[in-house]
Structures are given as structure tokens and as C-alpha cells.
Amino acid sequence: MADLTAQLARLRVPLGFVTGAAVLLVARPTWPLMAAGTAVAFAGEALRVWASGHLEKSREVTKSGPYRWFRHPLYVGSSILGLGVCIAAGSALIATLVLAYLGATLPAAVVTEEGFLRREFGAEYDDYCRGVTAVQPRRFSWERALRNREYRAVAGLAIAVAILALKAWLLPRP
């Protein structure tokens, strides 16, 4: 089981591209769905950017910004973003596909990441998980967000929204 979990965690990004391509192929967006879904997706991406601007990946247990409230704000943001794309796409099939993707890959990523953090930071990470550690007084940093390559998720979302908008404009309505 541990091997499957690790494999799912490693395949999260490539499976995300396959899922994203399927979403864009099957999507039947309308303008009202696009407006609602895009707002939700941007909220999810905003959470991801905020988290990336606080995260010092593999260097510490981050406790500032959204890490004060969520152990995995990047994954929470991804889930909100995925919900927004489901809304914008206007398809129950897409919602099922995205939920299956998120339900399989994100828990695997969490288990793998938490194992790494426990091995690397031990009691400090356990204290953080129990909420018995002080919050870091750190400000958001665009430099940190760029170093964490969050611009790739922003660009991917922008491209997906553009393709969905093009489909909403070009597809005939019944």
C-alpha cells in the first residue's frame, strides 16, 4: 500500500495534465458557469499563491500565512481551484473525473509529504500538527512565491480559463 501511495504522489502532476486535458476536451461551459467557476478557481489559486509566498520548502516547518490554519494550504487551494474548474466546465462527468483525481492523488501526496516532514523535522513537525507551536512572524514574499514556481499554476489556470472561455463562445447552445 505504501508503494501505491508513493507512486500516486509522484504521478500527481502528470496525472493532473491528463485530467486537465480531458476536462478541456469534454467541457461544455456557459458564460454564467464560467463566471462562477472562474471566481472559485481564482480564490483557490489565490490561496496557493499566498501559501507559496510563505513556504520554505524542505528547509523548515512553515507556520506563517495560511499555514497557521491549514497544514496543507497548497492542496486546499488546489481542491478549491478544481471545484472552480468543475463549475466552469459544466459537466457531471468532469466533476466525477476531477473528484477522482483529487481524491486519489492529494491524500497520497499528504501522506508522503507528512512522512518526509516527520523524518526531517521530527518533534517540531509533530508539535505543529498538534498546534502547540508558535506562529512564525513572516511576511508574504513574491520572491518566495516565484522561487516555489507558483507562476506555473497561475499560467495553467489562465490557459484553462482562456480555453474554456473560447469553448463557451464557440460552442452552439441547444
The succession of helices and strands, N to C, reads HHHHHHHH
Instruction: State the helical fraction.
Output: over 70%
Number of domains: 1
Please give the radius of gyration in angstroms. Answer: 18 Å
What is the mean pLDDT?
93
Number of distinct beta strands: 0
Flag low-confidence runs.
Answer: none
In DSSP terms (H or I, runs of 4 or more residues), the helix count works out at 8
Shape descriptor: globular
- Sheet with the most strands, sense and barrel status: none
Distance between the termini: 47 Å
Q: What class, by secondary structure content?
A: mainly alpha
- Indicate the proportion of strand residues: under 5%
Characterization of this structure:
The protein is mainly alpha-helical and 174 residues long. It has one domain (2-170). Helices cover 73% and strands 0% of the residues. Helix 3 packs antiparallel against helix 4 (73-89) and helix 4 (73-89) runs antiparallel to helix 5 (92-121). The radius of gyration is 18 Å and the shape is globular. The chain starts with a helix and ends with a helix. The relative contact order is 0.19.
Compact description:
This protein is an all-alpha fold and 174 residues long. It has helices at residues 2-10, 12-26, 31-52, 73-89, 92-121, 123-130, 142-147, 151-170.
